[in-house]
């Protein structure tokens, strides 16, 4: 889309003016088409300064997502990330799985301003109003099944590292949530398709939802346990830039999953370890002390009688 291309060029230029001629040449359109695109960007809330004989300069950009700019910020990646942006979808994960089943290549990224039917782990509803970062991306890794157990934890470490680039230090709650100052900031959902004949994954879809701004319609029961970056830090990274950072770290972490390179980050910033947790697993419910992680991110708990057990499925609620 022309507006996206023009916006990416202005973002890349920073405080430098870009001439209409240069924008037209880079976009392969006329200067009149550039002027019309800039006018439309202004209607969308972008403030663009135009100076005769100098060109255009972006002075303010709202939360508008820019696909082209995100792709430019990931140009050095091994995975050829291809970004698609939508105003509203039911679920980016559902869409990504559908496209994956149709043969979409690794590197597909779907970003939505709003989700109407977002989902979390164990079939839970994920509240996803306008203003957050909601993204899903497609991987086709050639990994042994033993490494698949660690994918969600690996992605949690990647999002933690991405937010760290902006001075934000989160805590990771086993297995898929990121917390900030004691409240939930981010959820991650990993889904895929397994080929039983070949004993390998056909594809993986990673869904990530991050609360960036306050939600005035947040359900009352979620207010004590959910937060957002603007409330906690006063501002939030632009979605285009944050998305690129997540994709870069996700690639790095998934490439090192066999060597468990995610584990030191995951362990050092865990808010689960050292606490008593109520574990919901296939064997039923129990309360135990979280004492460590296995290499594939299984939660090691110690029961009151001193016996230890590894939990690899279900959830863990911190109770003390």
Explain what you see.
It is a single chain. This protein is an alpha+beta fold and 320 residues long. It folds into three domains: 2-60, Orthogonal Bundle (Arc Repressor Mutant, subunit A); 67-268, Bira Bifunctional Protein, Domain 2 (BirA Bifunctional Protein, domain 2); 276-318, SH3 type barrels. The chain is 30% helix and 29% strand. α2 (20-27) crosses α3 (31-43). The chain is elongated and about 80 Å long. It starts with a helix and ends with a strand.
CATH class of the largest domain: Alpha Beta
Residues in helices, as a percent range: 25-40%
Counted up, domains total 3
- Under CATH, the homologous superfamily of the largest domain reads Bira Bifunctional Protein, Domain 2
Terminal residue distance: 52 Å
Number of helical segments? 10
Mean pLDDT: 90
Percentage beta strand: 25-35%
Give me the CATH architecture of the largest domain, please: 2-Layer Sandwich
CATH fold-level name of the largest domain: BirA Bifunctional Protein, domain 2
Radius of gyration: 21 Å
Q: Please tell me what the overall shape is.
A: elongated
Number of strands: 14
Largest sheet: 7 strands, mixed
- Uncertain spans, ≥5 residues at pLDDT below 50? none
Structural class: alpha+beta
Strand order of the largest sheet: 3-4-5-9-8-7-6
Compact description:
By secondary structure, this protein is of the alpha+beta class. Helix content is 30%, strand content 29%.
